[in-house]
Amino acid sequence: QMAEPFLYDTGRRSQYGCLGHEVETEHIKAYVCRPSFFTDRAVIVIHDIFGWMFPDIRYIVDLIAGHGYITICPDFFKGTDPWKTTDHWGDFADWMKAHDPMKVDKEADVVLKYLEEQCGAKKIGIVGFSWGGMAVHHLMLKNPQLTAGVSLYGIIRDSEERYNLLNPTFFIFGEKDHTISYDQIILLEEKLKQYCKVAYKIKVYPGQVHGFAQLKPEDMKPDDKPYIEEARKDMIDWIKLFV
């Protein structure tokens, strides 16, 4: 019996009225939120297994846009079904094979082109959560167009080349995340120290479970709130530093 990757109950979330709008570029739909003033800086947000329509991820998009970035969350599942809370965890491994977070390069290229050509973006950062965190880790190894990355509780585990990051990358983890062992984090830290030639940062937030940083304010537990807010501020500060 595989442990459920998510401790939070996605079925009991408050609704969220989004501030942005949906667009379509080539074969990809995306949710976009823009600040009220002109900017040539942008951030791509990569969703978790619950997909680009999940209210929590749209809340994050709006939050980042509020800090002055054209922010876009593309459907990296290309119209196929995201994981649903009613799906069986026994099928998760097969589902992951069909939704490989390290096969996102084509989609990333389409989105980068859209941001540069349609939105006039000159500097582009990327942020991803869980499945999206793995995708960010992968893209920061492959795509020099991405000025900076934040990978939240997503880690590429079985590749020797996962340490040669091209641009500054920040890894955020929850201390109580039972999908990522502390050993994995220590290994990442040791190897980055050895191989990484750009700025990087690793931070573990006390008592936090997988998925902690996506919660909307009304869904946060009072004990977790300071850590969630700190992680989000850290994420935005990292982006502001480089993008």
UniProtKB/TrEMBL annotation:
Its main location: cytoplasm. GO terms for molecular function: hydrolase activity. It is found in: Cytoplasm, Cytosol. InterPro entries: AB_hydrolase_fold, CMBL, Dienelactn_hydro. Residues 28-240 form the Dienelactone hydrolase domain. GO terms for cellular component: cytosol. Belongs to the dienelactone hydrolase family. This is Carboxymethylenebutenolidase homolog.
